[in-house]
Every structure is written in C-alpha cells, then in structure tokens.
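Researcher: Next entry in the queue.
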Amino acid sequence: MTDLSHFDKDGASRMVDVGDKAVTARLAVAESLVTMLPHTQKLILDRQISKGDVLEIARIAGIMAAKKTADLIPLCHPLSITSVSLDFDAPDEKTIRIRATVKIDGKTGVEMEALTAVSIAALTIYDMCKAADRGMTLGPTRLVEKSGGKSGHFIRETY
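Model: Structure for this entry, 159 residues:
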C-alpha cells in the first residue's frame, strides 16, 4: 500500500514539504462531462441561453477556479500557474465535454487545479442552464494526463 503523504507518522494532517523537490515543467489535463437534453445542448451551442454565452462564462469560471484551488482544497499548495486553458466540445447531441489543461514550472503537480477547473466549469454550465433543464448530470470527472515530477507521465488509456 502506498503511504499517504498528507499524514505524518502519527496520523496528523500536514501539508507535504516540497522544499527539496526539483522545479520541473508540469502539466495536467482533466475532463468532465455535462449530460443534458438535446434541446439544452442546442441552446448552449447556439448561444440562446438568456443568461449569456454559457461556454465563455464556464471557461472564465474554470480559469478562476484553477487559480483558487489552494483556497478550496485543504493541504493544496498555492501555486504560480503559468497557463490554464479550457476547451469544450459536443461528442454527441446531449453532452458537453469540458477539458482543462494547466501548466506550471514548479515543485508540485497541478492535477487538483485541472480537476477543480473542470468541476467548476461544469457547475457553471448547470447553474446557467438549470431553468431549461434541471435534470442535467455532471460527470464523470477525471484526470486524463499528467506529466512532470518524480512520478512521471500518466495518460489515461480510455476516456
């Protein structure tokens, strides 16, 4: 079993000391799905939701969320992120896929920032469209790729 690095030998919570780690280029890509009625997806893609351009507002929300991850997730390190981007596509007539890519030159990874970005973007889509479709479903949300640091390169086999 892998040791959990956020606990000391006595089981007390702690922020991991990354002081001795090397600075490396790090990247994380995460994605989340929002499933909805086909009519709702059409409204989003045609920019017909009365609250505004859903995907652009969700993009901004995701970027802001990535930058605030350390304020939201206990024991995450505050990071000087170098890049956050969110992209959207429609793999079928009832799904919006959100993909976030986060980059940093640092001593710790940005997986949590990428996962937070897609989670908040999905919640924003729900919030902006709930009047049209309260039955929307969020998820799955998952890490797609991660590189940099001692643990190496991870790419999800199927997604």
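Model: The chain has one domain: 24-148.
Researcher: Noted, moving on.
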